[in-house]
Each structure stands twice: as structure tokens, then as C-alpha cells.
Amino acid sequence: MEELDKLKEKWPSPFVKRKDIGDFTCGLINKATIASLDSRGTGIEDRFCIGREVAYPIESVLTWLKKRVEVK
Q: What is the DSSP string of 13-70?
């Protein structure tokens, strides 16, 4: 979906922190949802932690979102 690629252009970093996923997705995805999916093993791939912060490469976030888009 072309619109999702535009999110990358506007984001100031090559990574998205879990706590900022709502801002990145314009409120479509909640950080608690991602945390829950991560714990089930169905969250965004390639996550990493630095201290207590969890983050994801922006490409992994976009790939994950594109797999879940349902156009109606």
C-alpha cells in the first residue's frame, strides 16, 4: 500500500520505538497491542531492546503493517 510508504518519509529515524508506534501509525496501532502481539510471537520482527526501550527497524514495521492491511 503506497500510503504506508509515505509514513517512512515523514519519520525522523530509521527506527520506531514501541512507545511511539501510535504516532508512527497515526493512532491506528496502540503500543499495548504491539506489546501483546510481541509476547505471542506475532508482532513486528527484528525488535531490539536498549535498556527498557523496545524498538523496531522502520522497514520491519512497514512490512508488518502491509501484511495486515485489508482494503475494503
A: SSEEEGGGHHHHTTTSS-HHHHHHHHHHT-S-TT-EEETTEEEEEHHHHHHHHHHH--
The predicted pLDDT at position 29 comes to 94
C-alpha cell at 21: 508506534
pLDDT of residue 4: 87
The whole domain housing 24 covers 2-68
CA 64 to chain centre: 7
d(CA 15, CA 49): 12
Q: Which of 25, 28, 29, 22 is nearest to 10 (CA)?
A: 25
Report, as ranges of residue numbers, the positions in the chain whose pLDDT lies below 50.
none
Domain count, the chain: 1
